[in-house]
Write a structure and sequence with these properties.
- The structure is a single chain.
- This protein is α+β, with helices and mostly antiparallel strands and 276 residues long.
- The chain has two domains: 47 residues; 226 residues, no CATH class.
- Helices cover 17% and strands 31% of the residues.
- The chain has four helices and twelve strands; from the N terminus they run αβαβββαββββββββα.
- The strands form two sheets. A ten-stranded antiparallel β-sheet has the order 1-2-3-10-9-6-5-4-11-12. Strands 7-8 form a two-stranded antiparallel sheet.
- α1 packs antiparallel against α4.
- It starts with a helix and ends with a helix.
Length: 276
Amino acid sequence: MKVILVVLGTLAGAFYSGLLLAVPDFTPLNDYEVVDAYLGAGGPGDVIGNHAQFDIQKAVFNRYLQDDRVKLEVSVYTGFVANGGIGSFRRYTYNDKGIGLGDVFFSSGSWDPYMKGDGSVKDELFGYDNAANGTVWDYAFALSDKRWNPSGAGELYELTAGNNTGDHILLSDDFMKMGGYRRGQEVAVDPTDESVESTGLAGSWHPGTDGDGDFIQFLLDVTGTELATDAFGFHFGFLCANDVIEGDPPTDIPEPALFGLMVIGLGILAYRQGKT
């Protein structure tokens, strides 16, 4: 009997490990919420202007396999699209297109917002953090010239400069020429900059509504990048940065490979019990 258990356990573990070899490495995320508790420097209060348009309540993350590709789904809950935020305040923008959607920034492995250390509520809400002193972003999902559309297709880029202060990062100030907006916040990348490298991975976005409200959902292919397996920080705002959300989904999620090891372990345990 013990031989059968060992064989079954080993075969099951080997079978599962074989399945893992056939699919990309990934660590799942299941409906993980990051509630907006980020203030950001450069403006008064959390939301500047019309709350119905600019307030961001939370972001929900899912990471999963689909057709042997690792997908990262980011749903940002806001009424920006539903309440006419896209294309609004045209005369306040340099290109006269109005306010559009920002790119989605990611940092692989960690999230490190700037804190002044003065013990204030503002500091606890990262109210001194901006592009110059905050988390250095490693990836960005760029919407490029389609950002004034409620839905569309974009591309994931790797940011290799090692800082947020180069020409590869576009700030709210690069789009807004007047009016009330949050200054000094990163809102987009310049794909033509040499430090913005294409990953060849595509994505899309579209608006939606569920029981928690209106949202914008970004769906990215992150296969083969750190975003498929590692913890990460993220940052998103509109071109005006009138509200910004930052945060980091959790790191303590078991990887699928552990299942195969558990099966092998059960086989060994059964063998030892058979010997006693």
